[in-house]
Design brief:
By secondary structure, the chain is of the alpha/beta class. Helix content is 32%, strand content 23%.
């Protein structure tokens, strides 16, 4: 999510890719003499996974809220300077490692690294983070990893495998589109393919039937150009197991990377309670945009008929890095564990104000800051590089 380059369209189906990647990984770890056995195991696992997924079709699953209990977190290791990081690669690796270590204090972290890059990730992340190798393009697992859903009793979970097209054909995605295969196989979670181009950062859910997204992103013609708004909404509700979508008009001004992801402007704090970025400075291009979002929420109700309580967050630093003015850094792009809230830090004075507000909002949890200045330059933050795995009974 940095400087664009020509993408490569995936050539393998998800099922074939999963078996091939597992075989390659096994061959590297076990040696060529055992690769044939590994291939047989991978084929059996793929067949079993498909059968298991078929059994899940009769069960109603829903994506839970992020404040509900987690069993862990999935992240990915940035490794390729050619996707846009260039000379900032080591800096963004340090930020990813720092975020992973903070989260690992409260829940397990699975770090996915490009084959051959696992040792590098282990050295920087430390022993509290589990590293596996699987082909990836970059580090944005909120958008590229599976979105996990659970059944009504939270006894089973599945991984929703949406199509990923590099945020509208902007960036390489030949490997990242297939990341849900590797993650679900590793975790032993059935995977359900969803025929919709969607990034996880484009939607937030209360786990009680309500989704919040932005028109700017989900209706952009570079995602699902052949689908109407009604068709996109129906597919989204069916996948998330929800019953209502609240459509905010806008993401942040100049968010030309994600085209207006909602997690850069809003986050669910609890049922019918939303942390919303608003901009009191009338000279800011975000002033009118965020006011329009607030007006929609003020006039909306959630799936259970509740009116929204809106908590406004005004802090949004702009800074220059590597010759670029960063305008889309966002404190709503945080990650919540069972005992902490990991808030992105820009290295600017506004950090202290944001941390103080988060400590008020989360008085029973440890609020920690994690440096995300380079991630902000790349178009995201802490939430963008993490995908929570809900706990099941």
């Amino acid at each position: 999510m940095s400087l664009p380059r020509t993408h490569r369209v995936p050539q393998l189906s998800r099922r074939v890719f999963g078996g091939a990647a597992l075989t390659a990984a096994a061959a590297a770890l076990l040696g060529p003499g055992r690769a044939v056995a590994a291939a047989s195991t991978a084929s059996t696992a793929s067949t079993a996974s498909t059968a298991s997924t078929a059994k899940e079709e009769t069960t109603v699953f829903h994506a839970p809220a992020e404040w509900e209990a987690h069993s862990g977190c999935v992240m990915a290791w940035p490794w390729d300077p050619a996707v846009g990081w260039g000379g900032l690669l080591r800096d963004v690796q340090a930020e990813i490692a720092g975020i992973a270590r903070e989260i690992a204090r409260f829940e397990s972290v699975l770090m996915v690294a490009e084959p051959g890059r696992g040792a590098e990730a282990r050295a920087q992340c430390g022993s509290t983070v589990t590293v596996i190798e699987y082909p990836i393009n970059d580090c944005w697992t909120r958008d590229t990893g599976p979105v996990f859903a659970v059944d009504a009793g939270s006894t089973r979970k599945i991984g929703l495998d949406f199509r990923f097209n590099g945020w509208g054909e902007k960036y390489p995605y030949d490997k990242d589109d297939l990341l849900p295969v590797g993650v679900c196989d590793h975790l032993g979670v059935p995977r359900k393919a969803v025929d919709l181009v969607l990034e996880g950062g484009a939607v937030i859910t209360d786990g009680q039937g309500t989704l919040i997204t932005t028109e700017e992103c989900l209706l952009h013609p570079n995602r699902n150009p052949s689908m109407s708004r009604a068709e996109i909404e129906a597919a989204l509700l069916a996948a998330y197991g929800a019953s209502k979508v609240v459509w905010l008009p806008y993401g942040l001004h100049n968010d030309d990377i994600t085209n207006g992801h909602v997690d850069l402007v809003a986050a669910y704090l609890g049922p019918a309670k939303v942390l919303l970025h608003t901009q009191p400075d009338a000279t800011s291009p975000n002033h009118a945009r965020m006011a329009a979002n607030k007006a929609v929420l003020n006039n909306a109700t959630d799936a259970r008929g509740r009116r929204f309580e809106i908590v406004e967050l005004h802090h949004q630093p702009h800074y220059r890095l590597n010759g670029l003015l960063v305008e889309t850094f966002s404190y709503t792009n945080y990650y919540e564990t069972g005992g902490s809230v990991v808030v992105p830090l820009s290295g600017e004075p506004a950090d202290a104000l944001a941390l103080a507000q988060f400590r008020t909002l989360f008085p029973t949890r440890e609020v920690v800051g994690a440096r995300a200045r380079v991630l902000g330059w790349g178009g995201g933050g802490v939430h963008c590089v993490t995908q929570h795995v809900p706990r099941t009974q």
